[in-house]
Amino acid sequence: MKKFTLIFLVLAAACLSAAGQNQQAIRVNCGGGGYTDAKGQFWQADTGYSGGFPGTVTANIAGTSDQKLYQTARYAQTNGASLKYSFPVSAGSYHVNLYFSETYPYAAKVGGRVFNVKLQGITTFQNLDVFAAAGANTALVKGADVLSTDGSVLIELDSITQVAKIDAIEITQSVAMPQLNLNFVYPDGTPVAGSLNYKVTSGTTGGTSLSGNQPLNSGRATCLLISSPQLLGLVGTMNVNLSLTDTAGHSLWQIALSLNPASANFTAVQSSSLSVVVQKQ
Q1: Rounded to an integer, what distance in angstroms lies between the CA atom of residue 130 and that of residue 111?
Q2: Which residues contact 1 (CB under 8 A, 6 or more apart)?
Q3: Highest mean pLDDT: which of 92-96, 208-212, 245-249?
Q4: In what order do the strands lie in the sheet with 72-75?
């Protein structure tokens, strides 16, 4: 039963395309031009942003071998405004590093510049105060893992005190996730033509809800096993609903479960498969 619990949990958490998991690292010098760092890694000129304006300083930045990454930045347009970055990626899990420094003398105090950071729409760093965390003219890197289900990584900075600012962004692919292969056939062995539908909600009041579908290819669906549903904002016990519909909209198979992801062990899983035989409607 544990094996099936694992399968349904990860399938409902997100049904992702397993193609194109080899994603090149994304490195962006916010507010500045192209730059090759001390490790020989190239950072693109500022790109992927929506709104805001660039700024440059000449201050010496402590705690880094790459001064230029911290001497340019992109700022939100006005106090209280949001600054967004979006980057196209293959579906999968990623580690995001965000680079900050407080270089503005009037904001170089506790509470001088405070903002929230959302990754994939989820508040990841709340009330971030770069000066309080690192001091003035000092590098600060904040990192977190995210999951892309829609082919993009979205970063949003929401100003609270002063305007939000960011110096650089780095997105690298996490360890590749194992595949889950599903096969749906009729009793005579004919592959089902239709879609696999899923909906999952956190059991807590006001919890996150996630839903979608994946069209079958010759009766097959290939998904990725997700080791941390928390990356999608799913925490605690989850209510899972799965269903299979044919091209005419007939419901061929469905199941509802209540699961606790804390009881699942993903570390030893390399791949998994499930075959289901359904009756024609």
Answers
A1: 9
A2: none
A3: 245-249
A4: 53-56, 72-75, 165-166
Cβ distance 259 to 9 under 8 Å? Answer: yes
Rounded Cα distance, 270 and 43, in Å = 33
- Residue whose tokens read 């010496």: 60
In this model, does residue 18 exceed pLDDT 90?
no
Cα dihedral value 37, 42, 47, 52, nearest 10: 0
Max distance between CA atoms of the chain, in angstroms, equals: 74
In the prediction, which pLDDT does 227 show? Answer: 55
Residue 43 tokens read as 């950072």
Sort 135 into a burial class: Cβ within 10 Å, 0-12 / 13-18 / 19+: middle
Pair of tokens at residue 108: 């170089």
Question: In what side-by-side order are the strands of the sheet with 49-50?
Answer: 49-50, 82-88, 152-161, 114-119, 122-128
Q: Using an 8 Å Cβ cutoff, are 245 and 195 in contact?
A: yes
pLDDT confidence tier of residue 86, bands split at 50, 70 and 90: very high
Please state which of the ranges 10-24, 107-121, 123-137, 242-256 shows the lowest mean pLDDT.
10-24
The amino acid sitting at 28 is V
DSSP string, 7-39: HHHHHHH-----TT--PPPEEEETTS--EE-TT
Backbone phi, psi, residue 168, to 5°: -160, 160
pLDDT surpassing 80 at residue 262: no
Q: What is the distance between the alpha carbons of residues 42 and 73, in angstroms, rounded to a whole number?
A: 17
Is 0.85 surpassed by the pTM of this model?
A: no
Q: Supply the DSSP symbol for 108.
A: -
